[in-house]
Write a structure and sequence with these properties.
Blueprint: H1 2-5, H2 9-24, E1 35-36, E2 68-71, E3 76-77, E4 80-82, E5 100-103, E6 108-112, E7 117-125, E8 136-143, E9 146-154, E10 208-218, E11 223-227, E12 237-245, E13 257-258, H3 273-286, E14 290-292, E15 295-298, E16 302-304, E17 308-312, E18 318-321, E19 325-326, E20 337-338, E21 341-343, E22 352-353, E23 355-358, E24 361-363, E25 378-380, E26 382-383, E27 385-388, E28 391-393, E29 399-402, E30 405-406, E31 408-411, E32 414-416, E33 423-426, E34 429-430, E35 433-435, E36 438-440, E37 447-450, E38 460-462, E39 465-467, E40 475-478, E41 480-486, E42 489-491, E43 500-504, E44 511-518, E45 521-523, E46 528-529, E47 534-535, E48 537-543, E49 551-555, E50 558-562, E51 565-571, E52 580-594, E53 599-602, E54 604-617, E55 622-624, E56 637-641, E57 647-649, E58 652-653
Parallel strand pairs: 1-10, 13-14, 14-17, 15-18, 16-21, 17-23, 18-24, 21-25, 22-26, 23-27, 24-28, 25-29, 27-31, 28-32, 29-33, 30-34, 31-35, 32-36, 33-37, 35-38, 36-39, 37-40, 38-41, 39-42, 40-43, 41-44, 42-45, 43-48, 44-49, 45-50, 48-51, 49-52, 50-52, 51-53, 52-54, 53-55, 54-56, 54-57
Antiparallel strand pairs: 2-12, 3-6, 4-5, 5-12, 6-11, 7-10, 7-12, 8-9, 8-11, 19-20, 46-47, 57-58
Length: 681
């Protein structure tokens, strides 16, 4: 180890240059590559969106990302548009904006670049194999008719089926025949004659995405065409969107513990975990940073980090990629697999601190959900630490932190195609910030604070974008003290969840102090709750385990194009007379379109409303069921009108005097009236 650490930095820099050149397909280390192509005049201007919305509708909210998003349904194609459709278990339903384009072999979709770009990301879906496990299929990429590159698409990390925690087998029988299911409104194994269950049962998680460096830089106006070649073994290819961006030159750090000097293989043929460990040990002795230059590094286990800085050349250039590995015996934490990930020490061992990770991609190999498995991109306990500029793909959870821990800053990361959450603060995480991160296609909550056993406190989720969680919520807060959710953009939750969720459930510690939910925007939220057979709200409060009675301020939020309700407050039938929701205050809210009501209350308690303006409301403004006891004195839930609550829909003002304070207006399943698309207020 001492011998390797003594190598002069010049030799490491030569190796860095060689690997950079190999990784980007150039003969020299790239600087600012020359522009290529001239585009073609006269074509329609490209439509750039954010979460399939006009960017002006979400200005100042969500993550500030490097790429431009273009929906396939707005591009030129000889394929077939699918959607809009908000039904779960459909390709359109899981697409961004609930629309996409379906191609058969020989067909294409063509995007016009809105800005200079040298890299693209394609979000797509192709069929599963008949018995599960996925297939691969080619997709040709050309720009202005030339520069052909071939992407190899895969469905090996998509296509889940059945009941939680799901299976990869489309032909599987029910995983839980003793559970009540909506499809037959019965418990199958307690029903005679037994119901016929259509297979595959509840297919979901259809999409994946891939990134591609184009090899040169193209101008605004140039045409990127995605073509399914004739003879493709994929009967169809659905293209959801294209993200394009201008990726800068690789970051180089010469004075560092370069992992190449410790035996790491940038071509990914050999496992580099031990080499990275040696580089970390040397860096700590020498008070240097660890540098991982461009390349693909095979790592099939956790890299344990403490008091160290690890930098890559940038997430487009440095990839740490690993296989999921079965353990010979379950680990003490219940894991039956390990895989690529950077982990702080466990909190029971004191955790880790002063860890700084930046500028690389983590590429996992997780294809099934096993909740006990620690196969996350980042994990453990990290105090006084930062995680910045990572791209995390195909792990179970992008980042899962088990406290107690404090002062962690998570910034500027992209977390996509996860089997479960993108990020979870799990118990005892305090005074930490998650800001300017982008997530898409999670299999559970996008961003979550879960105060299991120990309260999370003083944390902030700010200016993040969360798109298309296929299950559960965009942003969820389960208990905790003095936390903030602000300036986020959440779009297209698919089922059994919502845009923003406040839940006393999953054994979480009680809410205490305050919870501030301010200046967020949700789009096409308010999903169908499969088990209750009702529509949720774009924001929903759920008192299942305890009362929710902390000071909750919901201020300045915009709820756009909600599929069902904009706001929902609910308990569960077995505890409806035990728990309540009180001390919730809604102020300066815009509701632009609901399929049903502005407020749905299915719990006892109260809330206040001030300057809540609504339009395009599909049903009665307030669906007030209270605790379903229907006493002659009115609902057990009361609404306080603090003034300025304007607008409504076809039934009149959304908060009419006759509804106050607690008129029973209980209709859980009114006809859904699809609102028009959101527009400037």
């Amino acid at each position: 180890m001492a011998r390797w650490s003594g190598r002069p930095p010049q030799r490491a820099s030569v190796a860095v240059a060689a690997v950079i050149a190999a990784s980007v397909g150039l003969g020299v280390v790239p600087g600012a590559p020359a522009l290529a192509g001239t585009g073609t005049g006269g074509a329609p201007a490209p439509v750039v969106t954010r979460a399939a919305l006009d960017p002006s509708l979400v200005a100042g909210r969500g993550a500030n990302v490097a790429f431009s998003e273009q929906e396939a349904e707005n591009a030129t194609t000889n394929g077939t548009a699918i959607g809009p459709d908000r039904t779960a278990y459909t390709l359109a339903g899981e697409a961004s904006g609930r629309k996409a384009v379906r191609l058969t072999p020989g067909q294409h979709v063509e995007f016009t670049l809105p800005k200079t770009a040298n890299a693209i990301t394609v979000r797509y879906s192709i069929p599963d194999a008949p018995n599960g496990g996925g297939i691969t299929a080619p997709l040709n990429v050309t720009v202005n008719g030339g520069g052909k590159k071939v992407m190899t698409l895969t469905s090996q990390y998509a296509w889940l089926y059945n009941q939680y925690p799901f299976t990869n087998d489309p032909n599987a029988d029910l995983l839980h025949p003793d559970w009540w299911i909506t499809e037959c409104a019965c418990v199958p194994n307690a029903t005679t004659p037994g119901p016929t269950i259509t297979k595959p049962f509840r297919p979901t998680h259809f999409y994946d995405e891939q990134r591609l460096l184009l090899g040169r830089t193209y101008r605004a106006g140039d045409k990127v065409r995605l073509t399914v070649p004739a003879g493709s073994n994929a009967a169809w290819t659905v293209i959801d969107l294209l993200d394009s961006e201008l990726v800068g030159a690789p970051h180089v750090r010469l004075l560092a513990a370069n992992v190449l000097a410790f035996g790491a293989d940038p071509l990914g043929r050999r496992d580099s975990a031990d080499a990275i460990d040696r580089a970390i040990a040397s860096a700590k002795r020498s008070h240097l940073k660890v540098y991982i230059p461009p390349g693909v590094y095979q790592v099939n286990r956790h890299i344990v980090v403490d008091d160290v800085t690890i930098e890559g050349a940038g997430s487009w250039y440095t990839t740490v990629k690993g296989k999921e590995v079965a353990l010979g015996a379950p680990a003490p934490d219940g894991s039956v697999h390990t895989g690529v990930g950077f982990y702080g020490k466990d909190a029971s061992a004191g955790g880790s601190r002063n860890v700084h990770l930046s500028g690389f991609a983590i590429e996992g190999d997780v294809r099934e959900r096993i909740d006990t498995d620690q196969v996350n991109g980042i994990g453990g306990a990290l105090s006084d630490s930062t995680v910045d500029g990572l791209y995390i793909h195909r792990t179970k959870v992008g980042m899962w932190f088990d406290g107690p821990m404090k002062n962690l800053k998570i910034t500027n990361n992209v977390i996509v195609d996860q089997i479960a959450d993108a990020l979870n603060f799990h118990g005892g995480v305090t005074n930490s910030v998650v800001s300017n991160n982008f997530t898409r296609n999670t299999g559970d909550d996008g961003l979550a604070m879960w105060s299991e056993k120990i309260a999370n406190a003083g944390n902030t989720f700010d200016h993040n974008t969360v798109q298309t969680p296929t299950l559960a919520n965009g942003i969820a807060v389960y208990g905790g003290t003095d936390n903030t959710v602000s300036n986020n953009l959440v779009a297209d939750p698919i089922r059994e969840g919502s845009g923003i969720h406040v839940g006393s459930r999953f054994g979480a510690e009680a809410f205490a102090g305050h919870l501030w939910i301010t200046d967020n925007t949700t789009a096409r939220a308010g999903t169908y709750e499969l088990n209750w057979n009702i529509g949720l709200g774009a924001i929903w409060f759920y008192a299942l385990d305890k009362n929710i009675d902390a000071d909750v301020q919901v201020v300045g939020n915009h709820f756009l194009d909600s599929t069902y309700n904009a706001i929902m407050l609910v308990s569960d039938w077995p505890v409806k007379d035990l728990y309540s929701i009180t001390n919730v205050h809604f102020k300066d809210i815009r509701v632009d379109g609901t399929g049903t009501s502005v407020v749905s209350a299915r719990v006892k308690g109260s809330a206040s409303f001030e300057n809540v303006d609504a339009r395009n409301v599909g049903a009665v403004g307030v669906n007030n069921c209270g605790s379903f006891n229907f006493p002659p004195t009115g609902s057990e839930f009361s609404l306080t009108d603090l003034g300025g609550n304007d607008g409504g829909g076809t039934t009149g003002p959304w908060l009419a005097p006759w509804e106050l304070p607690n008129t029973i207006t209980c209709d859980d399943r009114p006809p859904v009236v699809a609102p028009p698309a959101p527009s400037p207020w």
